[in-house]
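Supplementary Methods S3. Input chains for the assembly prediction are listed below.
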Amino acid sequence: MKQIRIGLLGMGNIGTGTYKTLEMNKALITANTGAELTIVKILEKDLARKRDVRVLPEQFTQEPSDILESPDIDVVIELLGGIEPATGFMLTAMNNGKHVVTANKAAVAANFDKLTNAARSNSVMFRFEASVGGGIPILTALTAPLLANEYEEIRGILNGTTNYILTQMEENGLSYDSALKAAQDRGFAEADPTADVEGHDVANKLSILISLAFGRRVPPENIPTEGITKLTMRDIETAAVDGGKIKLIASVKKRGNDIEYSIKPTFVPNDHPLAGVRNEFNAIFVKGNAVGELMFYGKGAGPLPTGSAVMGDVIEIARAVLR
Amino acid sequence: MKQIRIGLLGMGNIGTGTYKTLEMNKALITANTGAELTIVKILEKDLARKRDVRVLPEQFTQEPSDILESPDIDVVIELLGGIEPATGFMLTAMNNGKHVVTANKAAVAANFDKLTNAARSNSVMFRFEASVGGGIPILTALTAPLLANEYEEIRGILNGTTNYILTQMEENGLSYDSALKAAQDRGFAEADPTADVEGHDVANKLSILISLAFGRRVPPENIPTEGITKLTMRDIETAAVDGGKIKLIASVKKRGNDIEYSIKPTFVPNDHPLAGVRNEFNAIFVKGNAVGELMFYGKGAGPLPTGSAVMGDVIEIARAVLR
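Predicted structure tokens for the full assembly:
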């Protein structure tokens, strides 16, 4: 049996979800790849945390080079979050001939060219399906089975926190503050929710979608971005009277030879498929000049959905390595 | 520039849509594959038909071997429909070392093992994304980015004709007969609608989904299948009162070590994402043990959406050949 040896950078929520996905579906994943996938080394300081997975103390290291420079690692999964040191670690891994998988939208959006060029020049694979839409396989769809299309438009609900807040305001009449608190209580929002509610998280994701679907680099900070903090119950009620809902929509649209993009609270009529996307779910609506309208719907965050996307990328790499 | 030479079997609606997709997006497809894709030969008797594409008389042949046995063909696209001679043609093509792409759900469902084994033993690729869900890339999703999941359930609206009829009955109060007539007038239903309205078309698609997601062969004729012909306005109205809609749902569900499957008109509550799938659209709802709930939505039929899926498969083959 061929072996694919994985080094994991970071074992917080998403790292644990990834580990758990592999542990839970190990036999299936082995059958699907024709190789045994094993997480042999984990860069993580917090050894005390309760993780509910079987992990041995000797799997942990606090020395990045034990993974990035080890000849015993084939694939590096980067789940540290943040632009640095994550980007530097990924570049080092690729320069050392390792394939890289990440869920890190901030690093991919900030360093798209640097990272994809490093993959090309080192003849390794660099995959980041989990960075947009969590478990929804939107990046694979855009970059493989839909490639016969010219993309005309992409519109997405790309942040579960804000969609949960808006759904609670609309369906249960909660104020913005109460809905935010409910999201925090259910683990859908951070203690400091700024990145979510101001749309910065979405900007990273839209930047990545624009790169893949339109071949342009638009840094997240150059995308006109308006969050949901100024929305009132009155806005939500007015939308309901007008037969629709307010959603935080990230959009990019072809306009002649150029593209237009923005992130802002937007009226969505009730008969549009994006209107039915409730609570913490995400959805991406795509229009191609051959396929017409498509929508992809699912959980945009969470340890196991994200773990599904990360391990999907690793399986894809394992199959390519074995070919 | 590398060349990928394609032979096309059949140039009816779907064949023309496939040809048009390639013609319309040729530059883009060349850029995305790194090769020039050309349909060099077309098996088709009807040369008189108005097709609105640029095709030369010398591209046509009426001799299958001009494609199936020609050393100048790399990929065969089969769009004849029906089990035979389509299956025999695909087997001959693969035995002659050609990759095969098809949209033919009847042939794939009837001969899944024979066709996939022929691909394996000849070391060629056999792809059939367009056979289920038209332009929706559901088969690619199930067999690549979601492979880290054990599938628990798949539920789909897999037939646009019946969904159009049900939507017209529900939204516009049409009787079954009037709604069927409206579907026929808009080109969404055949003159003889039996295969659609009795669920046989869906049975082929569900059989393929079961093969890919659960690794079992269930012939379409063994799937308990009930169409929509016995539905009345009263059923639709009762569903509305109960807060939902009647949809023709194909479903397969894991139950211990076994699976359960059926096709039948089913109550779908309004807050379920499948309830919002209107008119000729299709959608496939998937539940995986890591990713949770996903839904894929789009046009399940039509020349260009199907052409998008067929050409997506050809591009995937071209990229693999070039690697």
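DSSP finds 13 helices and eleven strands in chain A. The mean pLDDT of chain A is 96.
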